[in-house]
Amino acid sequence: MVKLCVIGTGYVGLVTGTCFAATGQRVVCVDKDASKIERLNRYEIPIYEPGLEEMVKENASAGRLTFTTDLAAALRDVDLAFIAVGTPPTHDGEADLSAVFAVAQELAAHTARDLVIVNKSTVPVGTNAQVQKLVSDAAHDIQVVSNPEFLKEGGAISDFMYPDRIVIGVRPGHDRARRLMERVYHPLNLSNTKIVWMNPESAEVTKYAANTMLAMRISFMNELAVLCEEVGADVQSIRMGVGSDPRIGSQFLHAGPGYGGSCFPKDVKALVAAARRHGIELELADATNRVNVRHRSFLVRKLKRHFGGDLAGKRIAIWGLAFKPGTDDIRESPSITTIEFLLNEGCEIVGHDPEAMENVREMFGDSVTLVDDAYDAVKDADALMLLTEWREFQYPEFGRIHELMRTPVILDGRNIWVTYKLGEQGFEYAGVGIQHESA
Ligand SMILES: NC(=O)c1ccc[n+]([C@@H]2O[C@H](COP(=O)([O-])OP(=O)(O)OC[C@H]3O[C@@H](n4cnc5c(N)ncnc54)[C@H](O)[C@@H]3O)[C@@H](O)[C@H]2O)c1
Predict the structure, then answer these.
(1) What is the DSSP secondary-structure string of 95-108?
(2) For the chain, which ranges sit under pLDDT 70?
(3) How many angstroms separate the alpha carbon of residue 120 from the centre of ligand 1?
(4) CATH second-level architecture of 3-198?
């Protein structure tokens, strides 16, 4: 049996370690954050990811999954070490690789046998080669593999257990690495069709290419949405009209408040920055980011126009704070920039989210009021903004909302209530890229 360890127990590392353990393999998960490890040892999950808590409990109590802060001890008998630490953006848009390099150096210093380092963090092209060089003086042979992760928060377990593809970048001659990767992924690759082998440079670019292409679709639809509102067109119809073409496909064509999350914004910028270092201007990727940055203020500008150019003193209810449903992650969430814009305009904000309120409280403290009941948020509100399309917001009691609000203005940032004829129910209703409805 391959013995493996995973360093970094965030969204990617914890899911990776737990899912490998669920296939019967022995996994040690390592994190430098002692409080995280303490919680995990009590089977408490530091993040919200559907189904993960039960899986951690099951595999940890079966002895297949353990948690520690002690990397040296964790490395005992380990053949494969997965790096899944964060690679946040620096101020100039590059990926900060300090955690990746630090972990690689620790691995090289502590391994007591030949080792394969698998980089799962999203890193710019050339990082594999840098890590390989960094560990070249180790006492044992270390082969470095690139294995970017494609899981989606909110559906991470099924994405990991039933992958569309497993991208593995391995250098020619690194046969031990290739063999171990085949073995560790065997349970997820029973059809023998999932692994896409390539060199590490291609694997590194593949990850950024996938995220940038998806982000590009969103930015394009958001640009079209702005045009639609000007010319009397409907972005929803256009989405269906173009998405039904199998060459285009229907996913990632929803206009909204702009893309967010821990990956798209930073990965698009990091791809542009990495290309620039090689003297290449990736204009489409750069424009994707610029459109998104501009679009982030779209909803607030619209609200301001509605209130005659002045939002000072307005009480705004926000439903949905996580960057998408199914997660508590608020990194680069559209709700964060929206809140910042609204606070700058002098608004009072009352927010609600099923999972992300603790993280928002940590970020904004007392400047945003957070309430456990979505209807408490709309009480005396001048406008309701829907920013995350959680399932529980799909069919709210609009009669009750109308009664509770000071002025019945709804800005539906995800176009989930478009078909409800809210104008006829007494609301001023607007979405993104659709025609407004008046009471
Ligand atoms: N979140 C996603 O949906 C997703 C999807 C695919 C790829 N990725 C990529 O995977 C990587 C990890 O992302 P994440 O969202 O899981 O990050 P995260 O911030 O949730 O978790 C990173 C973890 O690494 C730990 N860590 C940092 N430095 C360490 C060190 N020196 N030793 C031990 N532990 C250390 C941190 O304490 C933290 O728990 C990033 O490169 C990200 O771009 C993320």
Answers:
(1) B--HHHHHHHHHHH
(2) none
(3) 9
(4) 3-Layer(aba) Sandwich (3.40)
